[in-house]
């Protein structure tokens, strides 16, 4: 007797297969419903997260591998900002935030200071401060970012616990999540991004909104014996816990009282991005080493969803003569404290300044990456080819972010309406 | 989605839905769970269809969604498949229909003892007839990992069903 193959055995298990005609319309209807849900979430501002560029990256380039050291630190050493570190400089809002942060730190936690002229620190545009913290003599540093923005009272509060939206089930979903309004009318949310080794607290009153996020994964300080992050590093003793994070948030919220909320907005004008698009395209052409031909009529396509707050997307799709496909997206969300998902590419900005791909990765040879622009903006690039052996997608997406950032970052204004 | 995209999506569903359902069943062991998995797969595929259809191998993309969704689902405790405590006895010599049913139950029980990734690997390799490299690409792992998952899965099945239950080589 011939022994069956495994395929034969599999075939036998299919006995009892339901006899049901395929009705493709039902799958189409479910797909449309999913798209509509994504649109509703976007309109309601119910999805999107805090995304802050390079937590700690502007502070400790030597540790985290940032190579933006060639950008001059305009405010470092300025007499008016002399008592403040370079990431604060002479910006009065940042100075007020800094004073509040330092005063609210736990007694055994301090800001890591670096005085290396080879790696000058560049202040972020807008009311945001990124620092590294260390606890006593632990030898470990933990990144922390604090950002301030006007409360969008025209939008529902961001509800990461009860309305995670498209982030449900992803690495960016808030875990151990709490949200609600306290007796003083302050809306609060707090959670852990377990897979991303980070925690977040949000506090906002009727005028201003503060987000504090910190890493729970240690980075070894120079000279430390601690293993590098990701090589056995354990969040054994993070610099902050949730109560300490909330205390910092409250301190900054209190310090912001009296500030004009309109002066706390930051971001780019979408027109500026459109004007810079030929330069961005030039960056891409240089990276791929070929001329890009636009697909479709718009180069770029502009979708302004909220002109007052400059919320929208700008995108273009290109091909090269040898079959490379390149897609570039810029989007700016309504507020820094929540993510924004772009349904066409199933991509969300993420809490750590990274991005969350909602669908499976692109099939075939492809590369995707993105970079934050200011507190509310993100770029995303996809390069793909149907030739799995073509290594350009990974090479291009890995190398093009910094030149794109160099074009876009100068466009960030704070306040956003200012010249 | 434009009308032409929707038409092509419907054509794909009409041509491939049944095959995806069978693959999903072999991974889940339950037709209802398989239907859920296929619905989830096709919903995600619909949302991404505009960019996915530019690629020739849409089926491979759909399989990838399906496998990822299945393995992700097995990590959620409320959806975890329950391994059976006892495997039914070997096939008897009674009524053929009853024998087939018994064989089916025994095979499904045996498959239920194979961990999800190993089981998915076996299904892709020996039901879908995909190469090691194709499975590695689909499951985002190395060829060596596919080989080891295959070997362990086959070994597990043989442990349960007996060494002569099927003819695949141990190093398949």
From TrEMBL, chain A:
Top-level taxon of origin: Bacteria
Protein name according to UniProt: Uncharacterized protein
Transmembrane segments: 43-64
Keywords assigned: Membrane, Transmembrane, Transmembrane helix
Residue spans of biased composition, Low complexity class: 66-90
Region described as Disordered: 66-91
From TrEMBL, chain B:
GO biological process entries: DNA-templated transcription initiation
UniProt keywords, alphabetically: DNA-binding, Sigma factor, Transcription, Transcription regulation
MF annotations from Gene Ontology: DNA binding; sigma factor activity
The keyword DNA-binding belongs to this UniProt entry's keyword annotation: yes
InterPro entries: RNA_pol_sigma-70-like (IPR039425), RNA_pol_sigma-70_dom (IPR014284), RNA_pol_sigma-E_actinobac (IPR014325), RNA_pol_sigma70_r2 (IPR007627), RNA_pol_sigma70_r4_t2 (IPR013249), RNA_pol_sigma_r2 (IPR013325), RNA_pol_sigma_r3/r4-like (IPR013324), WH-like_DNA-bd_sf (IPR036388)
Similarity section: Belongs to the sigma-70 factor family. ECF subfamily.
Name listed for the protein in its UniProt record: SigE family RNA polymerase sigma factor
Source organism of the structure: Jiangella rhizosphaerae
